[in-house]
């Protein structure tokens, strides 16, 4: 009998020795998950957030509260770093991978959130609404600093509300988004240090809409061009070659400089009662009427498939990130690309980001300076050389993609930071 017991125990120990750490039971206090909040003199959540923030996974500043922003950042980290269970929870293995040398076991006395407790849905909601960082302004902030921000944005024609409120709400966030887009910054809606520095300099540009831009303001501009008879296709919110052609026609008819860019002067006339109506609205990608101007555009700007794919993608802006999803209500990065390709008429299977990077029938582009709108751009992570992310290049150093860092489908700059240093290449489908 004793021999049997010893043998059974030995077998169990051998099995456990070969089991992955994640398969072994861990106590709840060892796992950081949604709803958790650091208590006084604790910094378990904040330390995790700081590392994720520094690595580019978390886009809001550390708060000590584990909300959906942190959960999405953890999911992205787990996805891009092999060997981790992708569950959005930071157990010992995930914490070790994130924290590295600064890892420490969580004390068993840590208080954890009750499963039935009510908590803010996102990390920013847990921040005091009156707190204003010295090097950044965030949605929810209040005070004189926000008033100064609004006034400067109003001077540059980004802030359209009639009064200065001193509250960083949706109107201010939209103004910041437009400022960042016009000035080729990462579009986050957060007035970070780099954005503030540029805003307060003489290099800050007046509100301008460029080909390759996307957003509600682009859709409103298309609607206005349609109303005036220059644009007879569906308004998509993406500034493609069809829209550029309509803008040039409008500029020509109204005695403006014909450059296809909607700046201060063009916008002023476009939304005025003096705007002249067109006689032949733009209905395609033909550039024959402006050959000298169109010759300087990228070789893919006249490609209707590229415009169509980007337009499809832009109709999904704001849809949430969900690992393994392919739409239409949520996506992960490769699922979003698959949705756009499928709805542009491209016959392809649902592949991973690495899978799309290996499609031999598509041209491979290795030089970031050779990218054209519509190219599928793919990336590695800071900790792995394998392809782990993919998006659609828009032009101007930006891409359309789906990631936790953009709160789902959104745009990001590839000109600097995480995506610049981790760019691997691109595939040209069209």
UniProtKB/TrEMBL annotation:
Stretch forming the signal peptide: 1-25
Protein name, UniProt field: NLP/P60 family protein
Keywords, comma-separated and alphabetical: Hydrolase, Protease, Signal, Thiol protease
Biological-process GO terms, alphabetical: proteolysis
GO molecular function: cysteine-type peptidase activity
UniProt keyword Oxidoreductase present: no
PANTHER family hit by this protein: MUREIN DD-ENDOPEPTIDASE MEPH-RELATED
Domain NlpC/P60 span(s) in chain numbering: 303-430
Keyword flag Membrane: no
InterPro entries linked to this entry: NLP_P60_dom (IPR000064), Papain-like_cys_pep_sf (IPR038765), Peptidase_C40 (IPR051202), Peptidoglycan-bd-like (IPR002477), PGBD-like_sf (IPR036365), PGBDSf (IPR036366)
Biased composition, class Low complexity, residue ranges: 113-131, 278-304
Residue ranges of the region described as Disordered: 110-149, 271-306
Assigned protein family: Belongs to the peptidase C40 family.
């Amino acid at each position: 009998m004793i021999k049997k017991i010893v043998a059974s125990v030995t077998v169990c120990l051998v099995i456990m020795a070969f089991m992955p750490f994640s398969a072994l039971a861990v106590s709840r206090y060892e796992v950081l998950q949604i709803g958790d909040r650091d208590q006084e003199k604790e910094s378990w959540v904040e330390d995790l957030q700081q590392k994720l923030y520094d690595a580019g996974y978390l886009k809001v500043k550390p708060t000590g509260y584990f909300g959906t922003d942190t959960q999405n950042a953890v999911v992205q980290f787990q996805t891009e770093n092999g060997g981790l269970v992708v569950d959005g929870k930071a157990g010992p293995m995930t914490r070790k991978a994130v924290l590295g040398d600064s890892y420490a076991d969580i004390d068993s006395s840590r208080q954890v959130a009750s499963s039935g407790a009510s908590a803010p849905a996102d990390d920013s909601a847990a921040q005091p609404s009156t707190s204003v960082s010295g090097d950044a302004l965030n949605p929810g902030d209040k005070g004189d600093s926000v008033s100064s921000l609004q006034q400067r944005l109003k001077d540059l024609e980004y802030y359209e509300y009639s009064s200065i409120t001193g509250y960083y709400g949706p109107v201010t966030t939209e103004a910041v988004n437009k400022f960042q887009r016009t000035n080729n910054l990462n579009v986050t809606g957060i007035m970070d240090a780099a954005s503030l520095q540029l805003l307060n300099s003489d290099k800050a540009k007046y509100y301008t809409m460029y080909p390759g831009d996307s957003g509600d303001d682009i859709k409103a501009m298309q609607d206005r061009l349609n109303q005036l008879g220059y644009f007879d296709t569906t308004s998509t919110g993406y500034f493609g070659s069809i829209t550029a052609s309509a803008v040039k026609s409008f500029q020509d008819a109204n005695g403006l400089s014909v450059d296809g860019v909607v700046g201060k002067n063009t916008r002023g006339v476009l939304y005025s009662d003096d705007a002249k109506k067109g006689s032949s609205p733009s209905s395609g990608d033909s550039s024959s009427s402006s050959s000298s101007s169109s010759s300087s555009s990228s070789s893919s700007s006249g490609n209707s498939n590229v415009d169509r794919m980007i337009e499809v993608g832009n109709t999904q802006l704001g849809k949430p990130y969900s690992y393994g999803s392919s739409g239409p209500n949520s996506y992960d990065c490769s699922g979003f690309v698959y949705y756009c390709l499928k709805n542009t008429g491209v016959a392809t299977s649902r592949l991973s980001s690495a899978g799309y990077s290996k499609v031999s029938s598509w041209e491979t582009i290795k030089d970031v300076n050779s990218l054209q709108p519509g190219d599928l751009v793919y990336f590695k992570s800071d900790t792995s050389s394998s392809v782990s992310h993919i998006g659609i290049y828009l032009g101007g150093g930006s891409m359309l993609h789906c990631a936790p860092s953009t709160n789902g489908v959104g745009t990001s700059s590839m000109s600097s930071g995480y995506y610049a240093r981790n760019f691997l290449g691109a595939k040209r489908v069209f």
